[in-house]
Design brief:
This protein is mostly beta strands. It is built from no helices and five strands. The protein has strands at residues 12-17, 27-35, 42-50, 55-61, 68-74. A five-stranded antiparallel β-sheet has the order 1-2-3-4-5, with no helix packed on it. The chain is extended.
C-alpha cells in the first residue's frame, strides 16, 4: 500500500516605509501569491503605493501562463473607488429596498 500527497506553499511579502515622526507610510509594497476571491484561483500580485511621488502600480499575473490579467499604473490621487474606498449602497431605515 502506498499513500502519496502533494503540498504546495504560497508566499506573500509586504513592507511599509514610514518616516521617523510616524503617520501614514510613505511607501507600501506587496509581492506574492494572492487568492482571487471570486474565482478561487491563485494569482501573482505586485503592488506599489508611493504616497510621496503620487504613484500607484499594480500588476496581477496568471502564475501558470505568465499572462497579465490586470495592470494599473496611475497617479495615486486618481485611484478612487477601489477596495475600502468603494461607495456603499445605503439601505433604507425601514429595511425595505
Amino acid at each position: 500500500m502506498t499513500i502519496r500527497d502533494t503540498v504546495t506553499f504560497k508566499e506573500k511579502l509586504g513592507l511599509k516605509g514610514r518616516h521617523a515622526d510616524g503617520g501614514k507610510p510613505f511607501i507600501e509594497q506587496i509581492q506574492g501569491d494572492d487568492l482571487h476571491r471570486d474565482t478561487g484561483t491563485w494569482r501573482r500580485l505586485s503592488r506599489v503605493i508611493d504616497r510621496e511621488n503620487d504613484k500607484y502600480h499594480e500588476v496581477v499575473k496568471d502564475p501558470a501562463t505568465g499572462d497579465i490579467l490586470h495592470e494599473c499604473h496611475e497617479p495615486l490621487s486618481q485611484h478612487r473607488g477601489h477596495g475600502a474606498a468603494k461607495r456603499r449602497v445605503k439601505e433604507p431605515k425601514d429595511g425595505k429596498p
